[in-house]
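// run 5 | inverse folding | seed 20
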């Protein structure tokens, strides 16, 4: 084996260009596949690093994280605190039930470290039930984890558990970390334990730095008590994910039936206290259990893009493998005399086969090693643009995947040329020393080239689709003036402004002070903001329609005066909400064009009333004073939905946090610091985000699409280069093998243009066959494209036509050099060569 390895290294040193190209091609294919496999494994395949993960079940929707207020029906996304506590005590099918807060809070904190000044940080904090770690089966790396005693009542000592990553990074792996204190929102929390390495919580895409028990929620988030008993059964706060552990031997279906029954036993007494018109929907709530071995996920938005990328990188690897096969077959054809002499001198076929496999494995393993390095760069790109909160790093499973692909490629494409040569006798090999005229070899080479063209065309079309989609998405009109607009998030309720009156006074004061800053043209505020994925929806009625009419709901937002003029949203009828509406306290609203069209048709909506039909006892109504043009709320991909906007001083639900929208006269970058300083000076204790320009927010919203276009474009370019190399190599070998034939044609009077046309016609046939096979593949994958494209058909003729033209030009360019060499052959030299 050592002799074979030395000989293989000598062969590769003799042909450095061949070796470098083959290794690079494999590195690109293997590296891209390894990176995408890492992401898919981390997001979809990997089970939680806990004890017996297959016993875990999710009682709520594994992808529904966040918080909601109002009412629900159908399968439950989240639970209220009371519902969770009831199910903890009435779940005989579970050996334990843990709760997880749906919101991952980013909270300013001060941490005292030994021998150093206090560290200011903003850890991400997750509220969990006291039995969270015990239900999951997680053991502490240091100290202890949370227990039932830490969640017994509101007066328990304030404790926290930190993640291993946070301990290693921010806390500098302090061995004396136990007992240290972290100050958050005015309260001190004692660190009692550190989680084990690799444990980042139960949800992919959300990695907490600290875990705090539910009982400490009022201290962690002052101003809103999520533990309080809710008396209005139609206006609840849903904020808890529930994950449990099944008793051994109990099926998921049996447990689901038992838990759903217990849940309805909880709901039944509440249903008797609500109006009959809402009772059926209320009792329609149910629990649907799902496997919890992979936990929850907050990255469902990346599902289709990841699958598309997986398909693209798989095709890239196939193209690289096809290229390697063509190169190895061409090299084997040039070594016929060597193989014939070795066989004639008594070498065994198995010895020849081993030599070929050694050379091929050496190439593929070198390509795999280079691919691992490339995969780290791809992981960084995926982490930055698509999965920022998912730790993408190589582990034994990923290394095994990379090694397995490398070895498989080496064995397969090392064995093929050797087996082809070993089927022939030494005499036959010597007879073909001047060129392999085997029709089988020619057919195999053509099939490989056709396959490369087919897959390359698919990658080119994908890149074209995504490029067209990204261009349209980047030019999409959000419906408001995004330039010179600054957004600032504030959390009034958690900063001591606990009443609606206090928050209203704060908003008016900040609005006045920010408006006075040089360079500021206008200021307003809203509850949900723009492009922060906050959304409110309620059942409504129109004074001309009866409450409860089917499909009569609408999104809504609570906004300050001059909201529409500040954002640059046109008012197409009537007027907007003004400061006079605040002063008079009139119940007015502005609706968007979609709501006006769907509810009023051609009738003028001005003067009609929007009635809050849920809960029915609320009955708040608002006079329509204006119709605003449609605009995007949370995504450039959004289709307009019916919405109405009411003054923030007359909320349907409390506006405990909100957003300031600031319109500047020039480049907003110059006033960001002034805005932040003004807010801090006016309200020193107010929790807020750093001001961000709307252009920055929209640019971040395009990050996933940008990643897709960059990666698909790179894959397409690499595929085209590999396909061109395959065409060139195949046609160069074909010209060499047909030297005598070409010499005879020229001797009989064929012109150089005839020879050039002969070779290019063969190239054209191969390219045409590959492109004809690629078109059905594009059609078959149209549904996968349609989920990630914006305003572009998955059969867009422009992108397909451009890819076809580009592929044809590349193929002809790759075949031109061999054709040119064939046309310049001297017939005398060609015939003498035989």
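// decoded
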């Amino acid at each position: 084996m050592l002799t074979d390895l030395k000989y293989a290294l000598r062969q590769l040193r003799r042909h450095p260009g061949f070796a470098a190209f083959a290794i690079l091609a494999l590195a690109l294919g293997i590296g891209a596949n390894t990176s995408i496999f890492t992401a898919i494994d981390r997001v979809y395949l990997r089970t939680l690093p806990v004890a017996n993960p297959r016993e875990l079940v999710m009682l709520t929707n594994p992808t529904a994280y966040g918080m909601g207020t109002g009412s629900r029906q159908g399968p439950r996304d989240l639970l209220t605190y009371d519902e969770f506590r009831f199910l903890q005590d009435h779940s005989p099918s579970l050996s334990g039930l843990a709760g997880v807060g749906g919101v991952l809070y980013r909270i300013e904190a001060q941490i005292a470290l030994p021998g150093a000044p206090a560290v200011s940080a903003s850890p991400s904090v997750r509220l969990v039930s006291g039995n969270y770690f015990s239900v999951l089966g997680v053991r502490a790396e240091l100290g202890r984890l949370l227990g039932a005693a830490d969640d017994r009542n509101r007066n328990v000592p304030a404790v926290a558990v930190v993640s291993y990553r946070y301990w290693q990074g921010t806390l500098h792996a302090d061995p004396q970390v136990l007992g240290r204190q972290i100050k958050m929102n005015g309260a001190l929390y004692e660190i009692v334990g550190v989680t084990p390495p690799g444990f980042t919580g139960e949800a992919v895409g959300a990695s907490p730095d600290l875990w705090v028990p539910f009982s400490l929620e009022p201290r962690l988030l002052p101003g809103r008590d999520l533990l309080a008993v809710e008396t209005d059964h139609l206006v609840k706060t849903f904020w808890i994910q529930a994950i449990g552990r099944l008793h051994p031997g109990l099926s998921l279906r049996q447990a689901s039936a038992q838990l759903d029954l217990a849940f309805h036993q909880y709901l039944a007494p509440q249903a008797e206290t609500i109006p009959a018109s809402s009772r059926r929907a209320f009792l329609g709530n149910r629990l649907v259990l799902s496997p919890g071995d992979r936990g929850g996920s907050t990255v469902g938005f990346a599902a289709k893009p990841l699958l598309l990328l997986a398909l693209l990188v798989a095709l890239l690897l196939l193209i690289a493998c096809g290229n390697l096969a063509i190169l190895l077959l061409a090299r084997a054809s040039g070594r016929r005399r060597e193989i014939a002499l070795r066989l004639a001198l008594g070498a065994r076929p198995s010895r020849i086969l081993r030599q070929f496999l050694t050379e091929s494995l050496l190439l593929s393993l070198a390509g795999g090693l280079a691919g691992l390095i490339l995969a780290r760069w791809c992981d960084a790109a995926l982490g930055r643009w698509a999965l920022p909160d998912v730790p993408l790093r190589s582990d034994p499973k990923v290394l095994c995947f990379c090694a397995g692909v490398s070895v498989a490629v080496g064995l397969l494409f090392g064995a093929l040329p050797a087996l082809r040569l070993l089927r022939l006798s030494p005499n036959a090999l010597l007879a073909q020393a001047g060129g392999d005229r085997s029709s089988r070899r020619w057919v195999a080479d053509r099939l490989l080239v056709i396959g490369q063209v087919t897959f390359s065309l698919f990658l080119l079309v994908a890149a074209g689709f995504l490029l067209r989609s990204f261009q349209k998405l980047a030019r999409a009109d959000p419906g408001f003036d995004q330039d010179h607009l600054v957004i600032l998030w504030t959390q009034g309720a958690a900063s001591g402004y606990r009443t609606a009156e206090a928050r209203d006074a704060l908003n008016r004061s900040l609005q006045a002070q920010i408006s006075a800053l040089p360079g500021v043209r206008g200021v307003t505020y809203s509850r949900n903001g723009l492009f922060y994925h906050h959304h409110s929806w309620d059942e409504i009625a129109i004074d001309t329609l009866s409450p409860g009419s089917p499909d009569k709901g609408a999104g809504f937002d609570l906004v300050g005066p001059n909201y529409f003029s500040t954002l640059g949203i046109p008012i197409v009828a009537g007027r907007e909400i003004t400061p006079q509406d605040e002063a008079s306290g009139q119940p007015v609203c502005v609706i968007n064009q979609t709501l006006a069209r769907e509810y009023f048709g051609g009738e003028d909506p001005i003067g009609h009333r929007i009635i809050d039909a849920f809960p029915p006892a609320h009955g708040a109504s608002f006079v329509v004073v204006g119709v605003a043009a449609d605009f995007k709320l949370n995504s450039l991909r959004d289709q307009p939905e019916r919405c109405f906007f009411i003054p923030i001083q007359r909320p349907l639900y409390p506006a405990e946090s909100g957003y300031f929208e600031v319109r500047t006269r020039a480049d907003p970058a110059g006033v960001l610091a002034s805005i932040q300083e003004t807010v801090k000076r006016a309200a020193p204790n107010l929790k807020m985000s750093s001001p961000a320009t709307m252009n920055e927010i929209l640019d971040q919203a395009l990050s996933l699409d940008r990643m897709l276009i960059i990666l698909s474009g790179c894959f397409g370019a690499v595929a085209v280069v590999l396909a061109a190399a395959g065409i060139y190599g195949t046609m160069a070998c074909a010209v060499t093998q047909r030297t005598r034939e070409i010499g005879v044609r020229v001797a009989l009077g064929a012109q150089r243009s005839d020879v050039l046309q002969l070779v290019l016609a063969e190239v054209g046939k191969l390219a045409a066959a590959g492109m004809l096979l690629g078109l059905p593949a594009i059609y078959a994958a149209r549904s996968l494209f349609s989920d990630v494209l914006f305003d572009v058909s998955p059969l867009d003729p422009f992108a397909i036509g451009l890819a076809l033209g580009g592929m044809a030009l590349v193929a002809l360019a790759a075949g031109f050099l061999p054709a040119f060499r064939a046309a310049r052959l001297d017939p005398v030299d060609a015939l003498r060569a035989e």
